[in-house]
Specification:
The chain is an alpha+beta fold. The chain has two domains: 125 residues; 101 residues, no CATH class. The protein contains six helices and eight strands. The chain has a four-stranded antiparallel sheet with strand order 1-2-3-6, with helices on one face. It has a four-stranded antiparallel sheet with strand order 5-4-7-8, with no helix packed on it. β4 and β5 form a beta hairpin. The longest helix is centred in the middle third of the chain and has 70 residues. It is rod-shaped. The two termini are 83 Å apart. The relative contact order is 0.07. About 4% of the residues have low confidence.
């Protein structure tokens, strides 16, 4: 710990306050006086604190009744020797008591404010931790769900009943390539969008299933979906094809010449 950190720690320890009202132990008194005599910063704080306490004591000091001393002397026996009291001693006693009261009030107020701030900070930190735990649980749930989907897809890909079909584009879309995975036994269909040539903003790629000459839409393909995903399974499909359609897709395939097509062997 460097010197600045030592000084900061000492000033936060409230030993100066205790020293001012004579509440320090011998070792604490030695430590306080060492810091006051060694570090000008501590001495400056000590002097300022002393001035403030004295001012506070003068403001809050309770004046003794004017006849208090005479009444006390009159109650003593006449033959009892009385040592005259120095004028400043009663004042000093009340002064010390006032300082102690002021210091106690300051310490109480400071402690209350410190505890309030600490409790507020602790409450905020607890809320942050709760939010982080909630987010973490949410992420874990999403990751577990995603992992389950991936394992299911992996299981389907490695199923001996799953057939693999590669759809490659013709001259109109020679860079187009998608891979379809179809399992007629479990009635599952998946497609992997490998690459799609870019289209104008008002056009999209749409995949179709040929069911006895009728084209049934299986959805719109996008490069944003370049991952293995499920598509609707179609019973008795004879083939798959991909065509270029207006943005948003079509209810019927608009072209008799798709950009990619393949026959299925499901009925063989």
């Amino acid at each position: 710990m460097n010197v600045n950190e030592q000084i900061t720690t000492f000033l936060k320890s409230n030993l100066l306050d205790k020293y001012l009202i004579g509440q320090t132990t011998a070792s604490e008194t030695e430590e306080v006086e060492h810091y006051i005599n060694t570090y000008p910063e501590v001495k400056k704080v000590y002097e300022k604190l002393q001035d403030k306490l004295e001012l506070s004591a003068q403001i809050n000091a309770v004046k003794a009744p004017k006849n208090a001393l005479d009444n006390i002397l009159n109650t003593l026996e006449e033959d009892t020797p009385v040592v005259p009291m120095q004028p400043n001693k009663p004042k000093r006693k009340w002064f010390n008591l006032a300082i102690a009261a002021s210091v106690a009030a300051l310490l109480f107020a400071g402690s209350s404010a410190y505890l309030f701030v600490q409790n507020s900070n602790l409450s905020n930190e607890n809320q942050v931790i709760v939010d982080e735990i909630f987010d973490l649980r949410s992420d874990i749930a999403k990751n577990n769900s995603r992992l389950t989907d991936i394992l299911e897809q992996f299981k389907q890909l490695n199923n001996p009943e799953t057939e693999k079909y590669v759809l490659q584009g013709n001259r109109s879309a020679k860079d187009l390539k998608t891979v379809a995975y179809i399992n007629p036994k479990e009635k599952k269909s998946m497609i992997d969008v490998v690459s799609l040539p870019q289209l104008p903003d008002d056009q999209v790629y749409q995949i179709w299933a040929d069911i006895q000459g009728k084209m049934v839409s299986l959805g719109i393909l996008s490069e944003a979906d370049r991952k293995l995903q499920e598509i609707p399974y179609t019973e008795d499909a004879l083939g798959l094809s991909i065509s270029v359609e207006p943005k948003g897709g079509s209810l019927e395939r608009s072209s008799d010449t798709p950009v990619a097509e393949i026959s299925l062997k499901l009925n063989e």
